[in-house]
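User: I'm putting together a teaching handout on how multi-component assemblies are represented. Below are the sequence lines for each component of a complex, exactly as they appear in our records. Could you produce the 3D structure of the whole assembly as structure tokens, so the students can see both representations side by side? Please keep the chain order the same as the input.
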Amino acid sequence: MSERQNTRVLLAERPVNRAPVESDFRVERGAMPEPGEGEVLIRNLFLSLDPYMRGRMSAAKSYAEPVAIGGVMAGEAVGRVVSSRHPGCQPGDLVLAHTGWQEYAAVPGERVTKVDPDLAQPSHYLGVLGMPGMTAYCALLYLGEPQPGQTVLVSAASGAVGQVVGQIAKIRGCRVVGVAGSDEKVAYVRDELGFDAALNYKKPDGSPKDFEALSQEIAALCPDGINIYFDNVGGLVHDAALANIAQFGRIIVCGTISVYNELEKQDIGRRWMRQLLVKRARMEGFLVFDHAHRTEEFRQTMAAWLREGRIVFREDVAEGIEAAPRAFIGMLSGANRGKQLVRTGQE
Amino acid sequence: MSERQNTRVLLAERPVNRAPVESDFRVERGAMPEPGEGEVLIRNLFLSLDPYMRGRMSAAKSYAEPVAIGGVMAGEAVGRVVSSRHPGCQPGDLVLAHTGWQEYAAVPGERVTKVDPDLAQPSHYLGVLGMPGMTAYCALLYLGEPQPGQTVLVSAASGAVGQVVGQIAKIRGCRVVGVAGSDEKVAYVRDELGFDAALNYKKPDGSPKDFEALSQEIAALCPDGINIYFDNVGGLVHDAALANIAQFGRIIVCGTISVYNELEKQDIGRRWMRQLLVKRARMEGFLVFDHAHRTEEFRQTMAAWLREGRIVFREDVAEGIEAAPRAFIGMLSGANRGKQLVRTGQE
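Assistant: Of course. Below is the structure of the complete assembly, with chains in the same order as your input.
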């Protein structure tokens, strides 16, 4: 790869009510960006791929603007400063920035966050020490308010957020049950991460179990009901969890990946208002940027847990920016094993 | 009416996935109850009719046991102690008790609450100073946490709970918008209760408006979105409210009367998980008996508001226990004007 060229991934087409395909993206090789006054030029090391990006591909109303057709796909990366026209950054600094899906980016210096390379490996700033880890931490502790002995169910349990949720819940003395989409993932969260139990929401043929079977399976693993359901997925697993919610249970709506390919349609299905009333349960939406004031608390706490080996974190690294579309499409259907990253540069 | 006879209303048949009809009840005249050791004999003055009783007619799982076929319909009443075999009650005491739908009842003394006849008229202990008023008070203030200048939308706005919700929200400095099922009710909450605005969710022909029309009408009356939606009904109005929920909005699930005739079926419809997430909104079920520790605070506060004329309360009184089934059926379809009561005895 020449130092004089930059490879980027653009949004070519919006997938409407369908899963994204590779032709929705365009990989383009072009000139290096030139940092303007106050900007820094960053060479990315790792790009983060996250489910929320499916929302950015859609023109449906959301909490953030969609990516324009022909625009660089939105995304956060960790990289090294190549050159700086901002007093706060020096060449060689390790930084976190919303660069989009590209190898190099010129970013305003005030939107760049320096990170401490001694605290953890660089990729962790996109995962366990970054947005997904902080999502798990703030949503579980501040919306969920877990108490020792309570039962926490987490969906997408082996994903970037789910694996952290379960381990923090264990630290807090909860009984933790994970839901995942393969026997391998189920074994991972139970045997490697120390979840008390886990179950596969899919049948051996890969199709989802039916609602009755799944809710009975959850009931058997959560005999006293679910005190906290950490919902990363919506849809079927949400329904089976709600059928088992305990009195005064909390449902944290953190993601709805099961309906991300139908964002332009109404989500029609079972409604649980009567259940919320009967169980006096609370369902609440979560976005991590409302908790920005907790960043330092989170970083310090999580770094300590990592150091002490109380939290482990699995990453799934695709090689090269060109691999990003395929890795992203795979992640949306659960093909990843842990936090999905793309290595965009070697050191 | 002979002093030696007692007229009661029994559950004859469970309505399943349909509205109750008069033949689901049986009015029976029989012997006076005999108070046993520790019991008091009460002559009821007013019986309360409340939407939750539709749930008690159903065998579907809920927070309380269903009424048995052939059993006296469950309900709370205010009445006068006739004779007492419990040291805490004297003949002539004005009391509140779960007597069921009947003129006389023998009730364990420890389950009887003496009420203060000087604080308010007896019927108010079933309404504005009773369970519906306390529901409005605790749910709005402790789940809703209203702030001055915020917009509160309340459904079934002229009902026993709704009229109190709106007036408390006004006392707290909120902008209050009511939803009701007739132009007369709309005029009542706007012109008599001082709501800032109100709208009829029905078309002139009595059929409900469609979702788009209703949500646009709400949007026009709540231009900054809804900070608190006090939901007494579920269904269509819930959907139109959720479409307009503001960032960090709260949805208090207090009743689901729109689906009470389909309790045995799944409530299938639009789901708002994505909206909860995007708006970081909170939806929470409410039952007043979780707030029993707030009874004294509520009674004192509400009595003061009544004395000062800051809260007014409309009651709709049906005459005679025999009228209870028809009044109850009417209430479920919105025929009542204000809190529905049955006068079961004169003084």
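A couple of points students might notice: Residues 5-127+314-343 of chain B form a domain with the Quinone Oxidoreductase; Chain A, domain 1 fold (CATH 3.90.180.10). The mean pLDDT of chain B is 95.
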